[in-house]
């Protein structure tokens, strides 16, 4: 039996196969993305650099001597590699456990291919069954947005004491019925004061690499 950590390392290594030489890549946030950064360091001379989805990721990339580039100064990224809090067989995701969902969504959108890496515990039949949905909100709109999320059937909890890299707040929404992720992603983003939500349904992953006891399982749609 492999530990969750060993499974993360397994998929982090496997993701290196998707790194094309002489390109700029996007890098996500979290413990699985950190494993990937540590692996990426071994081939850092082969890439031009990386765009980070958070300050924490930028710091870790820099600590390995990997050049961190501004998204506005580069064209389309070849790939985006990141973890997830939940993933379905359609490769739709919940992200934002680390609070970096908005920048993650931007970097994913700017990438030709999204390689999601996770241990197999993240695979679910329907989003929202195990994990809450993080929503980034403009601070003054927190209570208003929370009331609208209740109308959508959710139970929002303020992630008190946490500020995103964009200077905003996070509402973690429990008990949402996410049977129609595309519709819900749009509905939540239509609430004034919402910056982004952690549903990756309109921009799902292109490849999901899952760490299992029997090796890396690859899912594509
Ligand atoms: O969305 C994220 C951060 O905002 C992470 O990808 C997600 O929380 C998974 O993290 P980990 O790899 O530590 O399980």
From TrEMBL:
The protein's UniProt keywords, in alphabetical order, are: Isomerase
Q: Which InterPro entries match?
A: NagB/RpiA_transferase-like, Ribose5P_isomerase_typA_subgr, Ribose5P_isomerase_type_A
| Keyword Metal-binding applies | no
> Which Gene3D superfamilies did the record assign?
3.30.70.260, 3.40.50.1360
Q: Which NCBIfam families match?
A: PRK00702.1 (NF001924), rpiA (TIGR00021)
**Family classification:** Belongs to the ribose 5-phosphate isomerase family.
Q: Which PANTHER family match?
A: RIBOSE-5-PHOSPHATE ISOMERASE
Q: What is this protein called?
A: Ribose-5-phosphate isomerase A
State the species of origin. Answer: Beggiatoa alba B18LD
From the broadest rank down, the organism's phylogenetic lineage runs: Bacteria, Pseudomonadati, Pseudomonadota, Gammaproteobacteria, Thiotrichales
């Amino acid at each position: 039996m492999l530990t969750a950590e060993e499974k993360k390392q397994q998929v982090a290594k496997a993701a290196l196969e998707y790194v094309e030489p002489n390109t700029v890549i996007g890098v996500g946030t979290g413990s699985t993305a950190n494993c990937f950064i540590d692996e990426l360091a071994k081939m850092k001379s082969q890439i031009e650099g990386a765009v980070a989805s958070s300050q924490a990721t930028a710091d870790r990339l820099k600590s390995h001597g990997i050049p961190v580039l501004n998204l506005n100064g580069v064209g389309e990224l070849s790939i985006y590699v990141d973890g997830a809090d939940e993933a379905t067989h359609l490769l739709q995701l919940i992200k934002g456990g680390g609070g970096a969902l908005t920048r993650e969504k931007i970097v994913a959108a700017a990438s030709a291919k999204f390689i999601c890496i996770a241990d197999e515990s993240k695979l679910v039949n329907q989003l929202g069954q195990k994990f809450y949905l993080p929503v980034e909100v403009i601070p003054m709109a927190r209570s208003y947005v929370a009331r609208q999320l209740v109308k959508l059937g959710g139970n929002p909890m303020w992630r008190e004491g946490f500020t995103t890299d964009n200077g905003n707040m996070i509402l973690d929404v429990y008990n949402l019925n996410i049977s129609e992720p595309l519709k819900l992603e749009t509905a939540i983003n239509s609430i004034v004061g919402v910056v982004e939500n952690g549903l990756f349904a309109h921009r799902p992953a292109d490849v999901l690499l899952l760490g299992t006891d029997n090796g890396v399982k690859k899912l594509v749609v």
